[in-house]
Structure to design on (453 residues):
RNA sequence: GGCGGCAUAGCCAAGUGGUAAGGCGGCGGUCUGCAAAACCGCUAUUCCUCGGUUCAAGUCCGGGUGCCGCCUCCA
């Protein structure tokens, strides 16, 4: 099945057609001015699942995800804290990696930092100036928006309408208020790099054009990021790269919609957000993945405790089944194909439909379990395992529970004997105590079993 | 003001013009010493509203109403 994704630029679904077997993807990462929040995580989880799916489809994936470790806010916030800007950037980068690792999100193939690509950035800025699409002004360099006729093609904006929007940052250095900085002169005490225009630092959008070009070349397959980046960030990336080289930039654009909080978008500047670290402390990593993938990536959705609790219940339905199936079938096996899943994910990565299939399998498996049909059980289980793997779920059984298994078996035997002796009071007492430790004991026809919550 | 998106059960959420997936929750039943899990049944004659196209509309078109995003740093 041919994979198609909705492309923001052409405003339609577009087949993914890499030139060779490698899919080249640039995913806009964080500006590490502050701690990662759950809104960031939505995009990372979607990309992680997409990447696993494409790998399942037989592609190699080269995923470049930047860390923008220098910008105005990084400087401001580190100054406010009285620490070196590098320390702030590294601290937030570390936290991001800690959180994404915990969420079973694979690290990108390359995770380039803006400050490690100053040379490429300067080259690109120089080229834009040479082509007449940028100008220097008192140590700053600005992109000349009016010189580039295709400006606005991604976001569908019109320069003159933007102009009348009135909320544009004025600057005496700019020729036109819409022009944006490619390079910013360093003020006293600010970090700087040497450039043909004096001491300074890159503007916000240029690092992504430079790094994507450096690692992926022109016309790479997919450029992804949050919906809020469409304008101006991605619009500017296109303008910079295409104005400098005359080559096409990304072939397709994928934008993940916002995760809102109380009806509004999460935002670093207003503090209207939920910190990522808090969420992974409170919930199993699979729960956030469930919460994320049950909604299509192009639909806005709301972060709520109720939603997370609901996702937890849903996830428990899966793990409960897996534990029961394992008791009958032994160690889990994987199907090699699952055409229905392939079809729904190939159609603009419809993960909510995929979750529907997952729960259908759980239901079929439970039916088989109830009727004692071992073949049917195995069929559902192997497909389910494949689906979970493709979507990036990681049931806990893979985490070395083996070490305590003997001990658990002992407890199960103990309860069985108490029940056989009709010492129900003690049997229940044991179950309660076990539950306090976060484990659930259940009596079934096949005997008592124990599972993690 | 300009551009874009969305309105589907108590809640979350899919839905290619052909007769409303799935999850959570709730109710009834089966099983059980009790519980949990699971299974069986029920839980939207209808998809914000008004009009239109069509043999047929949640799906297409137009007018309302409401909500969200972007136009400023943002995933």
């Amino acid at each position: 099945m041919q994979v198609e994704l909705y492309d923001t630029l052409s405003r339609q679904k577009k087949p993914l057609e890499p030139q060779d077997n490698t899919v080249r993807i640039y995913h806009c990462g964080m500006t590490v001015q502050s701690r990662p929040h759950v809104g960031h995580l939505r995009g990372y989880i979607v990309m992680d699942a997409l990447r696993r799916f494409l790998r399942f489809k037989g592609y190699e994936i080269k995923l470049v995800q930047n860390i923008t470790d220098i910008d105005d806010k990084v400087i401001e916030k580190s100054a406010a804290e009285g620490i070196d800007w590098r320390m702030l950037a590294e601290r937030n980068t570390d936290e991001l990696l800690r959180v994404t690792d915990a969420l079973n999100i694979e690290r990108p193939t390359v995770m380039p930092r803006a400050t490690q690509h100053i040379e490429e950035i300067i080259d690109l800025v120089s080229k834009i100036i040479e082509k007449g699409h940028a100008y220097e002004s008192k140590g700053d360099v600005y992109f000349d928006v009016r010189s580039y006729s295709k400006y606005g093609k991604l976001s569908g904006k019109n320069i003159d309408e933007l102009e009348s929007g009135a909320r544009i940052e004025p600057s005496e250095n700019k020729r036109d208020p819409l022009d944006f900085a490619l390079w910013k002169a360093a003020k006293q005490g600010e970090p700087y790099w040497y450039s043909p225009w004096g001491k300074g630092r890159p503007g916000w959008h240029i690092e992504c054009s430079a790094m994507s070009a450096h690692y992926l070349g022109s016309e790479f397959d997919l450029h992804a990021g949050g919906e809020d980046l469409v304008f101006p960030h991605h619009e500017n990336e296109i303008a910079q790269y295409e104005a400098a080289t005359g080559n096409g930039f990304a072939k397709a654009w994928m934008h993940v919609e916002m995760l809102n909080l109380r009806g509004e978008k999460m935002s670093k500047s207003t503090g209207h957000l939920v910190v990522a670290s808090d969420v992974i402390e409170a919930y199993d990593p699979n729960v956030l993945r469930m919460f994320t993938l049950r909604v299509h990536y192009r639909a806005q959705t709301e972060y709520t405790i109720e939603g997370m609790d609901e996702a937890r219940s849903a996830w428990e339905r899966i793990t409960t089944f897996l534990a029961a199936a394992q008791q009958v079938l032994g160690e889990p096996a994987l199907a090699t194909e699952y055409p229905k899943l392939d079809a729904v994910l190939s159609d603009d990565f419809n993960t909510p439909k995929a979750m529907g299939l997952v729960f259908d399998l759980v239901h079929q498996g439970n039916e088989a379990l109830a009727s004692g049909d071992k073949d049917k059980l195995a069929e559902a289980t192997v497909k389910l395992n494949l689906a979970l793997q493709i979507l990036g779920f990681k049931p806990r059984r893979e985490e070395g529970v083996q070490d305590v298994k003997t001990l658990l078996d002992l407890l199960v035997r103990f309860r069985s004997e108490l029940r056989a002796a009709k010492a129900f009071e003690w049997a229940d007492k044991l179950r309660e105590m076990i539950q306090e430790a976060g484990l659930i004991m259940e009596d079934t026809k096949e005997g008592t079993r124990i599972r993690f919550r």
Notes: The longest strand of chain A covers residues 22-27. The mean pLDDT of chain A is 93.
